[in-house]
Amino acid sequence: MGHRGRPGAGRGRRRQRDAGGRQPAALWQAGLAQSRFRLPWRSRGVTEQLGPGDVARAAALLRQGALVGFPTETVYGLGGDATDGKAVAGIFAAKGRPHFNPLICHYPSAEAAFAGVRADDRARLVAKHFWPGPLTLVLPRLAACRVDLLAGAGLDTLAVRVPANPLALELLRQVGRPVAAPSANRSGAVSPTTAAHVLEGLSGRIAAVLDGGPCPVGVESTVLDLTGKGPVLLRPGGVPAEAIEALLGRLGRALPIAAAAATRSLRSPGMMLSHYAPGLPVRLGATEVAPDEALLAFGPALPGAAITWNLSAAGDLTEAASRLFAGLRWLDAEGGARGCARIAVMPVPESGLGAAIADRLERAAAPRG
């Protein structure tokens, strides 16, 4: 399955072009043009309440880029098309999530889950025993992976799982794309285990909630990192660590967040000071730009840069969030090829999603150890 067309990707609008006047390949492939992003249901401010017979409606909304709460065996997830950067950015906006922590991508089968990651024998063994079920695997991301970079917080890894809830599996089959889904609650609130809980926090902020009754497990999935030589338990959850150790042997344990940030030794959700750090140095707060700099712009771009990637010419923070990681990677690759000295970053307002964008940019600009 290829990427579907997205709002603003052409339709008579002038597409963004690089310094040479051409449409950047990464931008064209992602279908992200410089338009002001608007979620189609926001003008109504109404969240549809769907039942088990409305799976097709929920799947259609997800394919259109809308956000849908849906049940899993653990908690209700806030689903968005993981291949659509604007939908993923919408998840962070709806939750009020303060950082771009990696999101878990949900699939209807192990075969589908492993299509975009490198699954070794350990991954296939635990998947055989615990999928469908409350286990998330963090695995190396393949170059051909269709999941948007924002869903993985710019990391070269991806968190994947196959839920056990039959309604969720049917929804995922009908969507036909990876679905990114953190818990369907406002950031910092208690995770929801009923559709009513979802509506308490997100009514009017998402397109729909698919009511599948109470979640039987009630705690989030176990998260297992299989990117290194030894398996590491990042988060305890619905699958006991002892059950995994019976298959793989002793599990390593994640460092406390403060220690991991200090040492930058652990690639895990929200624990690294610097997630994806570009090869070029990053200069924040640029109000002017030199000819040997690549520019990451927001709003009207500063003149004089060697090359420019505009997060949002219209100054839309949701669009900017959806284009952040792709922009950093494109400027790093193209800027390096053209001999640029650094990436200069224009200021982004630190309100709403702007705070998360600023946090990510500070991590990208952190001193290299």
TrEMBL record:
Keywords: ATP-binding, Cytoplasm, Nucleotide-binding, Nucleotidyltransferase, Transferase, tRNA processing
Residues where L-threonine binds: T74, H106, R161, A181, S221
SUPFAM superfamilies, A to Z: YrdC/RibB
InterPro entries membership: DHBP_synth_RibB-like_a/b_dom, Sua5-like_dom, Sua5/YwlC_C, Sua5_C, T(6)A37_SUA5, TC-AMP_synthase_SUA5
Cell compartments where the protein resides: Cytoplasm
Domain of life where this protein originates: Bacteria
Listed EC numbers: 2.7.7.87
Residues that hold ATP according to the record: R97, N101, T157, S183, S191, R235, Y276
Region: Disordered, residue numbers: 1-24
Basic residues composition bias: residue spans: 1-16
Keyword ATP-binding (UniProt): yes
Ranges for domain YrdC-like: 52-239
Pfam families given in the database record: Sua5_C, Sua5_yciO_yrdC
Protein's job: Required for the formation of a threonylcarbamoyl group on adenosine at position 37 (t(6)A37) in tRNAs that read codons beginning with adenine.
Identification of the protein by name: Threonylcarbamoyl-AMP synthase
Source organism per UniProt: Dankookia rubra
